[in-house]
Write a structure and sequence with these properties.
Blueprint: H1 25-42, E1 46-49, H2 54-70, E2 77-80, H3 87-99, E3 104-107, H4 110-113, E4 122-124, H5 130-138, E5 145-147, H6 153-171, E6 175-177, E7 194-197, E8 206-209, H7 217-232, H8 261-264, H9 299-302, H10 306-312
Parallel strand pairs: 1-2, 1-6, 2-3, 6-8
Antiparallel strand pairs: 4-5, 7-8
Helix pairs in contact: 1-2, 2-7
Length: 315
């Protein structure tokens, strides 16, 4: 079976449903595990997309647990380096990749890496390589210069979509586990648990597997404090969501937990260092999570780029 062929999965699963159809944490986790198990059966070479953020870390946890129960190896893990991460995000990913013995593959747009770019640098489009100019043509980009901004449409595409597609193609991956959720953004509200991406002109043919669609922001954090953290830290009290670092159990430090440090500083969503801001002073899970402001501090969302990025093959 080739990567372009539809697999024995229900591509309509999730249509017409919402987080309310999975009313308890147990129901949400059970569905995540079921989707994951189906995917591990259906695909020959899946990969996990991991940003170090809460949603993709939850997906990684579920994939690891299901693979462990089945006696199988955890699929490779892709981390896309867009050159503008918080240093803490990179350190977090490296630390837990080692702790969990992951086959972590950090991928980036190597053509831009050679330019040693910094946010705000300006490049003449005519001086860029042919492949980069071709990708800009896909965006109908008509500027004579390109400002290096990972939060712009062109920046997101060149620094995220392009290296992702390159990595999927190079690895021969036929499925990618992703941490998108229905409630995050309008462009994601109609996603299904198995999302076909079989248009080779847009991206290497594969399916997206989306096990945590049914979670909302609060449920993600409930999963962390009830299962993810207790499973990672021996003796951690199940259900204890600390109100601050001082509220951690004796002998446990922030760095001992598989929770990205920026969440402790009030960030609710992690993007670029230049384009993200803290929502409040309290840790993310302590804040009012019903205010709809989870991604408001991210510049790319202010530009309403998500639907276009999906069309280009990123989401």
């Amino acid at each position: 079976m080739t990567a372009t062929a539809p697999r024995d999965v229900d591509y309509e699963a999730g249509t017409g449903t919402s987080a309310a159809d999975y009313p308890t944490l147990a129901a949400k986790l059970e569905q995540a595990a079921a989707v994951t198990a189906t995917a591990l059966d259906a695909y020959d070479r899946p990969v996990v997309l991991w940003t170090g953020g809460k949603d993709s870390t939850l997906v990684l946890y579920v994939v690891r647990e299901v693979a462990r129960e089945r006696g199988e190896a955890v699929p490779p893990v892709l981390f896309i380096d867009h050159f503008a991460h918080f240093p803490e995000t990179l350190a977090f990913a490296e630390r837990w990749a080692d702790e969990w013995d992951l086959d972590l593959r950090v991928v980036r747009n190597e053509r831009f890496a050679a330019l040693d770019p910094a946010v705000g640098d300006e490049f003449a489009v005519a001086d860029l390589d042919g492949e980069t100019r071709a990708e800009l043509d896909r965006l109908d980009y008509d500027g004579e210069t390109l400002t290096f901004d990972p939060d712009s449409l062109a920046g997101n595409h060149l620094l995220k979509t392009v290296p992702l597609n390159d990595a999927l193609r190079a690895g021969g991956f036929d499925a990618a586990f992703s941490g998108v959720r229905w409630d995050e953004q309008e462009a994601r509200a109609e996603e299904t648990f198995f999302s076909p991406r079989h248009d080779d002109e847009r991206a290497p043919s594969h399916d997206r597997v989306q096990p945590v669609l049914q979670f909302d922001e609060r449920a993600v954090w409930d999963a962390f404090w009830n299962v993810v953290v207790p499973d990672a830290v021996e003796g951690y009290p199940e259900g204890h969501a600390p109100e601050s670092a001082a509220d951690l159990p004796t002998g446990v430090a922030v760095e001992d937990l598989p929770v990205s440090p920026k969440y402790w500083e009030g960030f609710r969503s992690l993007g670029t260092e230049s384009g993200s801001g803290a929502a409040a002073d309290d840790p993310a899970w302590v804040q009012d999570l019903g205010d709809g402001g989870e991604r408001a501090g991210r510049a790319q969302d202010k530009e309403d780029l998500m639907g276009r990025l999906r069309d280009l093959g990123y989401m």
